[in-house]
Fold Histidine phosphatase family protein.
Amino acid sequence: MKYFNTLIALSLVLCFACQSDKKTVRQLDIPSGKTPKETKYYLIRHAEKLRDNPSEKNPELSDQGFERSKYWGEYFEDKKLEMFYTTDYMRTFQTMIPIVYPYKDQVQFYEAKDTLFTEEFWTKTYGKKTIIVGHSKTTPKFVNQIIGQDKYKPIPDSINHRLYKVKIDKDGFVAQDTFVNILLQ
């Protein structure tokens, strides 16, 4: 009987420990005056760029890059996106064009600097579905800042097909962060 009681007590401890998953992830403060809502972020690296001139600091997309950006546009067409962010580089903006086009919306520019996920950015994008186009180092860095962990490493230079998704529930908890490889069809 003593063994059975110990087993029950241990089971209850494990059960309650499993229910506290939300406490192990980041919880963001709901911006002042906002109604609790779910927030979603989609983050991608720009599509393939031209590499024929290594000294070019702001190259355009290659033919394959234009194909990928067209595919991204088709992929995001039914996602009901509300905010569109990109860095002010030709390759990121060209990647964004087919994504934003069906929405007939404005593109916001952000600077690729140390702090990407600021309180101002969180307040502007809270409760919305936002796409962010960045670079091999800034995209995973942005995701890490949103989730409050150093989980994702820079994207290898040969990879332009990775999609990061971050979902923050209505209580401000990071409910999901994943990445998937979306290959051209």
